[in-house]
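TA notes, week 10

Several of you asked for a full example with nothing omitted. So below is the full record: structure tokens for the whole chain, then the designed sequence directly under it. When grading your own attempts, check the secondary structure regions first.
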């Protein structure tokens, strides 16, 4: 094919993928809006009836369950999304492998539960672990249907699955918590949500597994899935390694406070940013034959992500204590500091938040796996030392060591993808500058408000600082990069009407 015709074809492909991605963003945003709105409301209600220790016990269970689910999926779902052809046959392979792995993994988890409970010194929680572990099998049985819908950028069925499975847990857990069932209220909510998710995905997906296995596709999927599994294992160590060490050295109370703060922070950021992830990965996977198009799409989306994440992180750093005072009672001591420090850390982490989607989408998941394991070499030792010094020391340690991960990603992009080491600054310098300027202004306004009205109610403080922050940030960004705001608004409008 002639170069001119190839370029024209590539432009058509990019336009087609971008149009479909815009349509998908709308449903992806709705998915996140439902789950990220329902979950915190349910969490806030449950926090009134349950203790941090109850949430800590569930957190210890989720450490083991999340680890087991790595092997129950083995990276096959992402491999299925990335597969360019024979997706239906590949789905059959992925389904039977996932089902077998899910059952085997749960059996191992079932017998390991007493040792896990003893490790965290929460004797008597073995039954909780075993019952809650049924999520492993439920998730395995629905992973292929979900992957196929993501692969086709068909997020409408996923919305309904998320909608009902986000609301139903509260229907079970809140009444049980009110009547004193404690940690079992959380167990009932989690299992009911996962079960309903399974039923809806099966009812919304037209695909059904056949009784056959293609050995060639099995080898292909497991080869790709190995690196995704390796990446997932490393990500598990980073995501849950903190809870593992905190639960061991500080106990389930501090773990409950920390994990609840982490959950709220990720809910807040997820509401704004998680809709991008499945759309970005699936869209970039469709363009994987055109490196220039992939990098262009990645940097375009990354600029928007940074423009949202940076002001959110700095805002949470300043508003964490007020949020805790407004939403939680006195038994959640220390939660405000958790929200502040983790909020800033997550905001900074989103500078490279979609890099892993880029690496996997271009068929090189090993890049992110290697980055993660490189980071683990210094993350876990730092975590282990800091966890023994108390929650405050641990929080600041986690913030500092997370900055090293940014540098690693910058180096990888420069060396392997031929991008500038300073590509983040080149692409989003106005967003970053506006965010830090907003933070300085809000810190001054906050001190002035407390000086003028020493006993200012948390609600008044939150509303005042939030509105001030939004106004300051958008005004500064408008002055420095009006084009970015116009382009972002146009993309949002196109996604809403498509």
């Amino acid at each position: 094919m002639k170069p001119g015709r190839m370029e024209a074809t590539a432009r058509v492909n990019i336009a087609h993928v971008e149009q479909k991605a815009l349509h998908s963003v709308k449903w992806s945003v709705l998915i996140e809006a439902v789950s990220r709105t329902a979950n915190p409301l349910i969490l806030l209600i449950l926090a009134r009836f349950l203790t941090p220790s109850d949430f800590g016990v569930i957190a210890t269970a989720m450490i083991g369950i999340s680890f087991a689910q790595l092997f129950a999926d083995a990276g096959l779902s992402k491999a299925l999304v990335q597969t360019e052809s024979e997706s239906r046959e590949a789905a059959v392979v992925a389904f039977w492998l996932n089902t077998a792995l899910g059952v085997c993994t749960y059996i191992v988890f079932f017998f390991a539960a007493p040792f896990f409970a003893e490790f965290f010194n929460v004797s008597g929680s073995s039954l909780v672990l075993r019952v809650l572990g049924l999520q492993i099998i439920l998730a395995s049985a629905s992973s292929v249907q979900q992957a196929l819908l993501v692969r086709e950028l068909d997020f409408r069925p996923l919305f309904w699955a998320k909608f009902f499975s986000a609301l139903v847990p509260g229907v079970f857990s809140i009444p049980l918590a009110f009547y004193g069932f404690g940690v079992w209220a959380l167990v009932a909510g989690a299992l009911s949500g996962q079960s309903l998710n399974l039923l809806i995905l099966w009812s919304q997906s037209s695909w059904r597994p056949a009784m056959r296995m293609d050995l060639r596709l099995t080898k292909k999927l497991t080869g790709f899935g190995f690196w995704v599994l390796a990446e997932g294992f490393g990500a598990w160590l980073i995501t849950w390694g903190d809870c593992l060490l905190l639960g061991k050295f500080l106990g389930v109370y501090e773990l409950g406070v920390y994990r609840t703060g982490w959950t709220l922070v990720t809910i807040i950021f997820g509401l704004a940013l998680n809709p991008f992830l499945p759309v970005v990965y699936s869209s970039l996977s469709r363009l994987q034959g055109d490196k220039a198009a992939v990098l262009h799409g990645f940097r375009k989306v990354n600029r928007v992500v940074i423009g949202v994440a940076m002001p959110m992180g700095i805002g949470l750093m300043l508003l964490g204590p007020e949020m805790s005072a407004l939403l939680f009672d006195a038994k959640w001591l220390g939660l405000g500091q958790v929200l502040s420090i983790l909020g800033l850390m997550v905001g900074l982490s989103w500078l490279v938040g979609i890099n892993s989607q880029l690496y996997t989408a271009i068929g090189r998941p090993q890049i992110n796996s290697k980055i993660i394991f490189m980071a683990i070499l210094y993350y876990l030792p730092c975590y282990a030392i800091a966890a023994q010094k108390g929650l405050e020391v641990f929080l600041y340690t986690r913030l500092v060591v997370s900055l090293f991960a940014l540098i690693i990603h910058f180096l990888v992009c420069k060396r392997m993808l031929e991008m500038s080491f300073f590509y983040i600054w080149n692409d989003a310098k106005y967003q970053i500058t506006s965010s830090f300027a907003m933070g300085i202004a809000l810190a001054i306004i906050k001190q002035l408000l407390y000086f003028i009205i020493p006993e200012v109610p948390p609600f008044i403080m939150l509303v005042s600082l939030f509105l001030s922050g939004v106004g300051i940030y958008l005004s500064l960004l408008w002055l420095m990069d009006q084009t970015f705001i116009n382009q972002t608004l146009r993309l949002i409008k196109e996604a809403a009407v498509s």
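The chain has one domain: 3-497. Use that as a sanity check on your answer.
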